[in-house]
Amino acid sequence: MLERLNEAMARIEADLEGEVDVKLLARIAGTSEYHLRRMFSALAGIPLSEYVRRRKLTRAASEVLSGQDSLLDIAVRWGYGSNEAFARAFKAMHGVGPQEARTRNKPLQSQQILTFRLVVEGSTSMEYRIVNKEAFKVVGRGTRVPLVHLGMNPAIVEFVKGIGMPTLERIKQLSDGEPEGMLALTYNQEGVEEGDQLDYFQGVVTSREAPDDLEALEVPENTWAVFTAEGPYPETIQYMWRDVYAQWFPSNNYQSVEGPSMLRTQIDGDQAKAELWVPVTS
């Protein structure tokens, strides 16, 4: 898997002056575009689109400093339609505009070419099981929230608080399927950067009809990888998400697929037991 991922990184460099085709990169890596984006972000710590942008601006910076071409020629070569758009993107990465960088020889940032190597970090085992589950229904309430990588998500906290304890208790009483109890479902994520929007649904698996004041979310038949973790809250849950994509997927013959991921959490003070369901295909 890592060898094919490095082949995709080499293709990015080959196509950098033109349009980088993520669908082609996914084919080279032998996976889906959705899974490639999720796994790259977990392994590299930045989204794939941001890596490509930073590589382009790194190459552009060397041309700015060389002084051989006009700034407009450089801007157009690296995909910007005007000097202004190029200057904004250049300053966002390097801290100075291209004109100032050229005339004052300012130090600039560099996005190094990424390569992936096997590092032995899996000294602790990751407990998981594979579950084939028919289509089912989740009843509760949903909203749209921004992505938060570390710490509590204020939008989710406020949303759940707004549901109110009486309604949450009523939702819990509807639970009659697996996974049992109250679940947090996330899906339709627009990206992997901090602040990107995703759908969040708080509810339970049930065979009963949704009351008038609640919503029903239909989840299609799927295969699920189910992970368990225990430790400090909320770090344990967020690290579990990271480790699933950075360690488990590269070590196993499964890929993530689009669909809701489900998290069941039991919190006791500052500790948590968590069970994460991720839709997969082999």
From TrEMBL:
InterPro entries: AraC_E-bd (IPR010499), GyrI-like (IPR029442), Homeodomain-like_sf (IPR009057), HTH_AraC (IPR018060), MarA-like (IPR050959), Reg_factor_effector_dom_sf (IPR011256)
SMART domains the UniProt entry points to: AraC_E_bind (SM00871), HTH_ARAC (SM00342)
Keyword DNA-binding: yes
One Gene Ontology MF term: sequence-specific DNA binding
Keywords: DNA-binding, Transcription, Transcription regulation
UniProt key word Transcription regulation: yes
PROSITE patterns from the UniProt entry: HTH_ARAC_FAMILY_2
HTH araC/xylS-type domain segment(s): 6-104
Superkingdom: Bacteria
Protein name: AraC family transcriptional regulator
Organism for this UniProt entry: Lentzea aerocolonigenes
Upper taxonomic lineage: Bacteria, Bacillati, Actinomycetota, Actinomycetes, Pseudonocardiales
